[in-house]
Amino acid sequence: MQIAEYEVISRGGHWFVCHDSDEAGPYATKEAALQAAVPPISLSAAEGLEIHLRIEGGIKTPDPQMTDN
Predict the structure, then answer these.
(1) 3-class SS at 12?
(2) What is the CA radius of gyration of the chain?
(3) Could you state, in chain order, the average pLDDT of each consecutive group of 10 residues for the chain (69 residues)?
(4) Strand order across the beta sheet in which 22-27 lies
(5) Is residue 26 within 8 Å of residue 45, measured between CB atoms?
(6) For residue 66, what is the DSSP state?
(7) 69 lies in some domain
(8) Do the beta carbons of residue 20 and residue 41 sit within 8 Å?
(9) Gap between the Cα atoms of 14 and 28, Å rounded
(10) Nearest CA among 17, 24, 15 for reference residue 63
């Protein structure tokens, strides 16, 4: 069975989604990166692939546009 591997990683204060040699991002939060990963993961599932998803731990990156002034 083929395996589709996805990773949500943090680098330089931003979040990225990695799959094979592709990288999507940057995303402001881990949650945004995970939401962006869902459609391609769903496609892999529909194709019958086994899916491995790794989500890096870390502190939520605050969105500078969501600050209280």
Answers:
(1) coil
(2) 14
(3) 95 94 95 96 96 86 51
(4) 22-27, 14-19, 3-11, 50-55
(5) no
(6) G
(7) no
(8) no
(9) 6
(10) 15
